[in-house]
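Helix-turn-helix domain-containing protein
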Amino acid sequence: MTDVVEAAIPPGLRPYAESMVGYRIDGASPGTHIGMPSGTITLVLALDQPLHLIGADGRRGRFDTVVAGLHASPAHILHDGFQHGVQLGLTPRGAALLLGGPPGEIVGTSVDLAEFVGPSARRLHEQLCDTPGWRERFALVVEALFTHRDTSWEPRAEVEHAWNMLSRTRGRAPIAGLAEDVGWSSRHLTHCFRQEYGYPPKTTARVLRFRESHRLISAGRPLTEVAARAGYADQSHLNRDWLAFAGTSPTRWLREDDIAFVQDTTSSPGRS
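Predicted structure tokens:
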């Protein structure tokens, strides 16, 4: 049995969250779900049982609430065929709202939400467990995490422009062109971009291109078409990036990851 419900993101929340999904999966084959690199910071509020996570940095933990920073290698979720929770795809501004600083601070790693928001993370988790409806759960998440919260972090305008262009073009904007747009050298843009987002723009562009290929493959498009539409030279190039970012080939992933569709639901850019 599978229940996946996507929330409508309130207009006031759109600068902070790309997606919010409730899911309950029961009866899948036990195994390992690959947490794919993407252009968002992932927040998971696990219900009924903790999330058994091996992060992109190799650290293992069991979390009721966890924030996974931007990463360029796969994370792994070990499961017994049952998964239940709420998952959000946060923008860098959304992550900064919770962290109180630039999202680059947690790049490549996963951290308990309580480390950033304190005891309110535990209270939110308890309330979600006691609340049966998805709509009510989504309202609790918005109230607890985004209402009455201020951020002191603002990205530099030049760096934010580069981020937005990379996101809008799904990783296909040339870095030299972005540097020219903002009047900086490519080297200076790379330095400042890394300071704020944790990765240089070239790596970010590759991750966003991979994310687009992930979305198209999840939608059932042929690999040759995916390679062309996502900006790869050919299918071999696509396969190399999948091995680098996902640790597996697209065909093997489709064959072996029995709950792959949870992240698929939250990986499409521009959802609301």
